[in-house]
Design brief:
The chain is an alpha/beta fold. Helices cover 34% and strands 24% of the residues. The chain contains nine helices and eleven strands. The strands form two sheets. It has a nine-stranded mixed beta sheet with strand order 5-1-2-6-7-8-9-10-11. β6, α3 (101-113) and β7 form a beta-alpha-beta unit. The N and C termini lie far apart (42 Å). 43% of the residues are buried.
Length: 263
């Protein structure tokens, strides 16, 4: 009889020894597929569920492979000693892990059954029933809130934000622990008024105590070339340290949360 250990999902990377994607030392599992198309996305190879070919440094790389929960758990168990010494664990990322809900839930259940701490990096751009399916199996939720204006959100990500914001409130009410993160993108949401509006919303969420401002970077730009796609933000410079400090101050004035720059 098939169990959740036999569920198959599509991943494109496993990153070990991360210290910026949840507490402690963590292994990040990157899942294929996403509902958003954020202009600044640093993992464009994650957006399509299909397996792709990407050219990097003159070599063609296959992006995407299918694994069962059982096989993936065997890989994750190899670093258990680091999780235990640092109070770390497993983080699901992407793409959007909630775009593969059956696999994500099965993997999280398997991790909990093995005594491994679980976390997710998510936009929560998903149906409520999917959110309700996955959240109970998570110890930490790191959720992006990108903008409060739905029209501007859709212009830069191709999706409106009403469902995302509604899901954020439900997650805050029901998750074991939630942190709000804001990718700070020049021309999109890097004014003090825009950041303050997001901070005020985050401050209204029950049990949320932290807000992380993540400065824009262009580390994924070469991947677009490798996929034969245009990177439309090539003309945008990362925000200066002084500007990030001003945005942090604006966020602190708008909410009672701990605000920090970076994850």
């Amino acid at each position: 009889m098939e169990t959740f250990y036999d569920r198959t999902g599509r991943i494109f990377d496993i990153q070990r020894f991360s210290i910026h994607d949840g507490p402690g030392i963590r292994t990040i599992v990157f899942l294929k597929g996403c509902y958003l198309r954020c202009r600044w996305c640093c993992n464009p190879e994650s957006q399509e569920y299909k397996i792709e070919q990407m050219t990097m440094n003159g070599a063609v790389k296959t992006v995407g492979r299918d694994m069962t929960v059982r096989a993936l758990l065997e890989e994750l168990e190899k670093d258990r000693v680091y999780y235990e010494r640092s109070s770390g664990g497993i983080t699901l990322s992407g793409g959007e892990a909630m775009a593969q809900p059956e696999f994500a839930e099965a993997l999280l259940r398997a991790c909990h059954a093995a005594g491994l701490n679980t976390a997710i990096e998510t936009t929560a751009c998903a149906k409520r029933e999917v959110v309700e399916q996955i959240i109970p199996h998570l110890d930490h939720v790191m959720m992006d809130i990108k903008h409060m204006d739905s029209a501007k959100h859709k212009d830069f990500t191709r999706q409106p934000n009403e469902q995302i914001l509604a899901n954020a409130r439900w997650i805050a009410e029901n998750a074991a622990h939630m942190v709000v993160r804001v990718p700070v993108i020049p021309t999109f949401n890097d004014t003090e008024a825009e950041i303050a509006a997001i901070a005020a919303f985050a401050g209204s969420l029950p049990k949320v105590k932290e807000l992380h401002l993540l400065p824009y970077h262009r580390l994924g730009q070469d991947k677009y070339t490798g996929l034969g796609r245009e990177y439309t933000l090539a003309h945008i410079q990362p925000p200066a340290a002084g500007h990030m400090a001003a945005l942090k101050a604006a966020a602190e004035r708008a909410c009672g949360l701990h605000v920090q720059i970076g994850g």
